[in-house]
Amino acid sequence: MTIENLGFETINLGHGSGGELTRNLLDKIIFKTFSNPFLDKKDDGAIVNFNGEIAISTDSFVITPIFFKGGNIGSLAVHGTVNDVAMCGAIPKYLSLAFIIEEGLKVSDFIKIVKDIKKAADESGVLIITGDTKVVERGKGDQIFINTTGFGEMHPKANISVDNIKEGDKILVNGNIAQHGMAIMSDREGLEFESTIESDSTNLNHLTKELLDAFGAKIKMFRDPTRGGLGTVLHEIANDINKGVAIKEADIPLQKQVAAACEMLGLDPMYVANEGVFIVVVDPSIETEVLTLMQKHDKGENATCIGLFTQEHPNKVVMESLIGGKRIVSPLVGEQLPRIC
Amino acid sequence: MTIENLGFETINLGHGSGGELTRNLLDKIIFKTFSNPFLDKKDDGAIVNFNGEIAISTDSFVITPIFFKGGNIGSLAVHGTVNDVAMCGAIPKYLSLAFIIEEGLKVSDFIKIVKDIKKAADESGVLIITGDTKVVERGKGDQIFINTTGFGEMHPKANISVDNIKEGDKILVNGNIAQHGMAIMSDREGLEFESTIESDSTNLNHLTKELLDAFGAKIKMFRDPTRGGLGTVLHEIANDINKGVAIKEADIPLQKQVAAACEMLGLDPMYVANEGVFIVVVDPSIETEVLTLMQKHDKGENATCIGLFTQEHPNKVVMESLIGGKRIVSPLVGEQLPRIC
Q: Is the domain of A94 the same as that of A225?
C-alpha cells in the first residue's frame, strides 16, 4: 500500500472540521487503507447484516507511548476490542474506528498507526466499517487516542457464562503474563531495562474460535486480564460467583526477564496489564485436551493450568507461593500503571 | 435517581486503572444510572439480538465548553450518534459509551453529564449496553471526551440511497440552521452575545421514523449537517451524485439573532454546525405532505423546502441570494469553529 504525498506534514485543527481538509485526510489515508464495500459508501454510518445474537464491545485507547516494543496504539486498539468480543464467545467481524488527534501529530506517525490498524484487522479477520476523526488543540490531548467498537456473531456452540462455573473447574491461561505492562514501563522515559521485553498484544479470536469449535458449551468462560492484571480479574470472577479461586504461583507462566523487571520496580506481575493473555475455565474432565489444543496454537504455546474454583474460601483468591505459604490476592486498589491501554 | 456520597470529589488516575477504584466509580455512577439487563451483566461486552440489516455509526465528542446553552457533551454524544443512525433510515436501539476523562474532573460535573446522557438516551429510546472509562493525566486531555457508537434496526420501509435522487427532487430541512455552532461560540470565553442562542442539539429519530412510516421508499435521503454545516453537506451530496443543487437563501430558516451573531463574527451560517437539523430529499410529488407531517412534529415546526436537485450545474451548489444574485456555495475549507462537537 502506498499513500501519496499529502502536501502536509502534521495534522491541524482543520483536519477535524468536517470540511474539505477532513475529506482530504480521509480520502488519502483512511478510505484508501481500509477500502471495503461498507466503508466505501462514505456515509455517516455503515449498514451490515446480522442474524441472531451479536456481541458488542467498546474501548478507548489512551496508551503512552503510542509506539512501544511489540506494537503501537493502532494495533492495540484492534487487538483489545477484537479480544473483548472474542471473550464473549463471539466471532469478531466488524470494527468502528474513531480518532481523537492532538494538533501537531506527525502525518508519518498517523500513517504508521493506520497501517498497523489495517494489518491487525486483517490478521484478526475484521473489517473497519465506519469511523470518525476529531482534532483537538495542542495541550488538550496527547498525540492520539483511538476508540474501537467491535461486533461479532456469537459462536453457534458457545454457552459462556459465569453461572456455569462449578467447584473443581480448572483455570487455564494461554501464555506468559505481565508482558504488556512491563513493555510499556520499559519504554517509558527513564525506565530502560537491558533486556528487551515485548508487549504480548495480539488477537486471540482465532484460538478462542478453535476452542469453541472443539469443546462448545464445555468452555465455561473466557476472560482477558488487561487493566488490573490477572489478580484483579480472578478476584472479580470469584466475587461474581461467590466461589473461591485457588492458584499456585509456580504454575503461573512468567518470563524470567519480566519477573526480574517487576521485582526491580516493586510491581506484582499479578496486577500488571496483559493484552495477549486470556483465561479459560473448563470442566476438569477436558483440561488435558484443551491444553493440548492450546499448546499447538501459536497464541497458546505456553498454555498451562494455574488453578481451580473451590468452595473453601468463597470470594477470595488464594495463591500458594513458591515456598509453600498461602496469601490472599486482593484486587488492585488505585493506579499501578496509568495509561497502559 | 440519587447517587450516594462517593467519598471523592474529583476523578483521579486510579479511576481508570481497571481495579477497585474503577469498579467503585462504575458501580456507584454508571451501572446505577444506566441499569438494564445488558449492562447489568458487567461483562466486557454486551450480547444483543438482531435480525437483518443494522446501521452502525460512531462518533467521538470533544466539544468545548462541555456545558453550553441547550445541552452538554453528554446529551450531545447521545443525540449525535442517535441521529447518525437515524439518517441511515434505521431505528436506533443501543449505544456503547466510552469516556476519556482528564484527571481532576469534578465528580459533580461527571454526574451531571451522566444524568443527561441517561435523559437523552431515554428520550431517544436507546439503551446504553456497554462502555469503557479511561483517565489521562492533567494536561493530556480536556476535562472529558466521549465516544458513542450506535446500533439500529433498518426501518422495514426504508430505501435510502443517494442513487435514488433524481433531477427535480426537493430538499427540505426540519428547522432553523446554525444554532448549535453559534450557541457554542456565544458560550466560549470573551464571546457573550446579549441574546441567548441555544444549541439545537436534539434527537431526530422519532421524526425520521414517522417520515419512513408514512412515506417509505419515497424518502430518498436523510442527512444531518453537523460539522461543516449545511453548505458543506449539500456540496458533498452534489458531488457524490454528479448533480447540481439549487437553493434560495430566503427559504433557509434562520433565527434573526443567529443571523445577527453570524454577521457580527463574520461567519457564514451555511458553514456553522447543527445538531438538531436534518435535510430530507423527496420526490416533488410528496413535498407538501412531507412538510405537513414535519411541521406537526415538535422537531420539525419550522420545516421548509430550501431547494432542489438540477442538472444545470452538476457538482455545484448554487444559492440565489436575498437580493436575487447567484453565488456558488463551496465546501468549507480549513477550520471554522474548532471542537464544535
A: no
B-interface mutation test, from A39, A41, A57, most B Cβ less than 10 A away = A57
Of A127, A154, A181, which residue is a domain's last?
A: A154
Distance CA A165, CA A279 (A): 13
- Its pTM stands at 0.95
Residues of B in contact with A52 (CB under 8 A): 49-51
Read off the pLDDT of residues A79-137 as tens digits, 9 standing for 90 and up.
Answer: 999 999 999 999 999 999 999 999 999 999 999 999 999 999 999 999 999 999 999 99
Check CB contact under 8 Å for A149 and B149.
yes
Give me A171's grid cell: 483455570
Give per-residue pLDDT as tens, B10-64.
Answer: 999 989 887 788 888 999 999 999 999 999 988 889 999 999 999 999 999 999 9
Q: Which CATH number covers residue A268? A: 3.90.650.10
Residues B79-82: contacts with CB under 8 Å, at least 24 apart: B79/B120, B79/B124, B79/B201, B79/B202, B79/B203, B79/B204, B79/B275, B79/B276, B80/B148, B80/B201, B80/B226, B80/B275, B80/B341, B81/B57, B81/B148, B81/B149, B81/B150, B82/B120, B82/B124, B82/B126, B82/B150, B82/B203, B82/B204, B82/B205
A332 or B272, which is more confident?
B272
Question: Looking at this predicted complex, what is its ipTM?
Answer: 0.95
